[in-house]
Hints:
Blueprint: H1 2-12, H2 17-26, H3 32-45, H4 47-61, H5 69-83, H6 88-104, H7 110-125, H8 135-148, H9 154-163, H10 180-191, H11 195-204, H12 212-218, H13 224-237, H14 245-256, H15 261-278, H16 283-289, H17 296-308, H18 314-324, H19 341-366, H20 370-390, H21 395-407, H22 413-426, H23 432-447, H24 455-465, H25 468-481, H26 485-502, H27 516-530, H28 537-540, H29 548-559, H30 565-579, H31 588-600, H32 606-623, H33 625-645, H34 652-658, H35 662-681, H36 686-689, H37 699-718, H38 720-730, H39 738-752, H40 761-775, H41 779-787, H42 789-803, H43 813-825, H44 843-856, H45 867-879, H46 894-907, H47 911-931, H48 940-949, H49 980-985, H50 1001-1007, H51 1033-1036, H52 1053-1057, H53 1108-1119
Helix pairs in contact: 2-3, 2-5, 3-4, 3-5, 4-6, 5-7, 6-7, 6-8, 7-9, 9-11, 10-11, 11-13, 12-13, 13-15, 14-17, 16-19, 17-19, 18-19, 18-20, 19-20, 19-22, 21-22, 21-23, 22-25, 23-26, 26-27, 27-29, 27-30, 29-30, 30-31, 30-32, 31-32, 31-33, 32-33, 32-37, 35-37, 37-39, 37-40, 39-42, 41-43, ...
Amino acid sequence: MARDRRRASAAGSALTVPQLLNEAQRGAASAHVRYAKMLWELALSDANGARDQLLAAIKWFATVAEPTVYQSRLLNFMGTFAAEATSDDRVTFVECLLVPLVDLTYARDVTARWRFCQLLHALVGNLPPEAELSDDVLDSFQEAMEDRLEDAKPTIRAVAVRALARLPNPGTDEDFSCCPLTQAMLDMLAAEKSKAVRKAVLATLPCSTFTRKVFMERTRDEADDVRKMAYMALAERVPLAAMPVDDAAALLRGGLNDRAAPVREAVAGRLVAAWLEEVEGEPLRLVHALGVQAHPEECELVLRTLLDRGVASAVHLGRMAESEGLGLRADFGQEGVLMGPASALFWRVVCEWLSSDANSKGVSAANKVGAAANIDAAAAGERLEALESALPATVADMASVIAKHAAAGARYRFSTGQLMQLAAACMDFADASGRSAASSMLRGLLADAPAGDDAEEAAAWEEAWHSDTWLAALTLFLRKVYGSAAELSDALLGVIGSIHRSGGFAAEAGPAQVPEQAWLHALGVAGLLLGQLRSAWPALNVSGTFGLRDLLDSIIQPGQLHRSAKVRREAVRCLGLYCGLDGIPTSPAGHLLVLRQVLLTHSETSAVKAVAVQALADAALARGIKDVDGLVEPEMAARYRLGLNNERPLSRDVELQQHKPLLGLLLEMLREWTERFEAAAAGGDRKQASRRSRSSEGLEQQAVLGAALVQALARLVRCHLYWVQRQEREGQLLALEDLEVIEVLVDLVVLYFNPAIEAATLVCQALPVFFQHYAELTPEHQQYLATAFLAAARTAAAEDKASGRRVTAATCTSAKVMGFLAQLLMTPYRGEHNSKQEAVGHEMLVDLVLREAVVCSSPPYLPEVPKPHLAALCRVAAALEVFPVGEVEDGATVRTLKQLARQAWAQVPDRAMRKDLDTLLERLSSRAAQFGLAVDPFTPEEVDGLLETLLDYDSSGLLADYPLPFDAVEVPQGGAAPPAAARAARAPAKGKTPAKARGGRRQQAGSSSDDDEGSDSAPQMPESSDDEGEEGDGGAHRTPARAPASRLQPGRAARSTRKPIVDADSSSSSSEGEGEEGDSDGEEGDGLALLENSPAVVRNSKARRCSADSVSALRQALQENRIS
């Protein structure tokens, strides 16, 4: 009590500057305004004295490295003090205070630079909007902060960029495109590796039409906090009206489906709420503004988010529909009363949410007792009552509503599909009369086609039959209306028969005179039928006159020869679905051969070939790829003999490829497609690019075929183990060979890193999803990836060599491939009951990688091997998990790996590589101690035997097909390379890194562990860099104050290429620290780009950024006035 009275008394009397600062640190934020006014009184009465006392106190403040509540209060107080600068004399005092603070940002001590930048941010950032600083002060401040953007410490860079928030100039165009400071921030964001700095840049960067795309890109950043900041910045700075519809839909799709709950909460609570407020809180208007027909999934996601969060009450909406005649309870008997696209989707989502929530509440009530069960049961009943109020009384009434919308034409096609989905999900079709009414409506809908010359109606009708949304709605409704496959077959074959008769298929003129629209109509309904059947038996026993064989003979097979590519595409799709049925009345071999012939027809379009690829892949997955080859081979031989007797035999290239197995044909097509797409993307020789495809096809059309090939191959290798097990049970050849699986994996991973296919969006999206899912399946799948590791690395290295370009850390494809595969191999796989297991041990792969490293670092090969390639081998060897359960029989041993690591250590030319090998040696020693394994050094005889085996370790087996792409050179006697024995003699006995020379900031930035963040839950990835820490002989006498022009933003370009934006499935650390500093940013780096920021990477971190010794040294410097 006495202490409180003394403090109150002191606060009430005249205080000095130090006393005011002490009170501000101890007091709450509410007292800061009072203390700020008192400080202004002192400043205005004695400006020089107050400034000197403030600077003295601030210098002591700069000695505290640990963030505490007292330091935060002092910074907040200085911001409050600056906010009171409402007059010219007060602004002048702030300028007098800023001048020495700007100079102090060049202090040698890291903590001092950080604290002074914080103070500048607090002062400048909180000045009133009308306050104007002089040009001299502002220029010196901007120059100092721009220099600090190149500081070695990420925390200083983050504060510096936040301090520059008020300085960007929008220019005459008001979009900041001409502002140098904005461009510097964009360059910094592209190169920055610290998530804290990237977050600070997004919080500072002005958002305009020029910079909006950068915020959109950062919504796919690997760090949760950065993605969250990007969404929050867009929510605050970009209104919905100014956002393109496609970009708004992409934001909602990515944000509401984000893997991190805080990001999803920020999107729902800030972005969706801000946009909803713009439309006056009406969800229906928000859905309409988002383009419901173009983005139905995103609109549905937004509506479900609003319902889940209670922003919109589904129960209230359901009751209001009945009482006020809204939604499905409107009077559709009146002329012109129809539901628009937004309204139809809105009421579908509301009704589906009520049905789903009622079911979940009912299940919850069944699992509870007492009052809790009664509460959930009452909630379930309430939702069911609201659902009944929102829906029509009977299925027949619902069918009538759907029929009226279908008859309204193309404008209401989307609404019709939404209503069919609603009926299938929420209504009971047990009533026979209701099903009969719905069946009649469906028959009329399927048989209906636009008549007359209305081109818009015809185009909308055709688009509907190619729309996944429309076909999905039809499928759901068909399954509800027709309870069995026989009923479905009878109804749809009857519809196809009526189209066949009315379209003129059976006329004397023949199918050639049938309009294209009739072909598409018949084939569309046929595809709908064949896609719902598993067996041909129901369709072979229909009561009508038009059967399955009639469908094949008169529509599907003639459609494959039609002049229209659209008709051929649908016919090929139907043929593939037909081949997938059990018990078809014709031989599948002939149909499969027709599909192969489509692939080999050079004049065929990519869209038709893509459908044929999908059909062949479906057949291979249903029967086994070897069984498909076995079916086709006799038919191919018969067709070949027939072709020799014809006047127009098959061309030689088609003849040769027809006899290839299906896998070989798909791989050959993928390689040819890659070459053609590279030529088209590079704007090369169009004549050469169009030899095998029509020249009118653009990149987007060609990308469809590439995506189909990639997906087909991915599906085949993913299901390989299933067919291996079935092959063992049934005793017949069904599955691929293991070497064929490896070949596919190698081709796909090398394709993933081909920069020429970036324009093929579907391919670039399919590959990472496949690999991530493949690595998580079983340990056996990871072993296939491990087996493909060196083969893929050598293939990529061969392509780098063939390209003729200079291989650097940023362009080394083989290093990127090894980094990506290593990241996959460290992915925990899913065990039984979907439980996460530990990473698989890859000691056999580490053995091969070390042998590869020893060979590549030997004097004959070292001059030819790119340094990033060799560095990647060392990093991968240090990163992969080894011996998680000890040594296994017939596997690699700790002794062998340690000897290989020592040999590689003695040969590699870079200490960063030796650092990685040291990490491996320490891990091997730890595993040996854990399991009691032998670690005796090799005898000289064993060493000689091991070195002899290195010359032919890859001459047999898989690697024989993927030779080392580097040529050995003759090493002159007395060359620069030291003898291996001498290098080994200098090797540390226990894996310790030799002493390193100290260097400048380039070394400091990479290896200083003070700036790194880590996670103890993942395997450790050692840093690979020639870098050194900040402390030491060299660093102690060097002040990282003003970076030379050569080390400003352009110097960070190499780091930007190694900092990819990650979508989708990589995890990120949830904690926010000081940021991650990367490896050396020169061309001599390791190039293991995709591993540097992997979720499996762990970097060492320190709890404190400044030791007690450095604080004492700074205080001594303060007393000696040496801080500046």
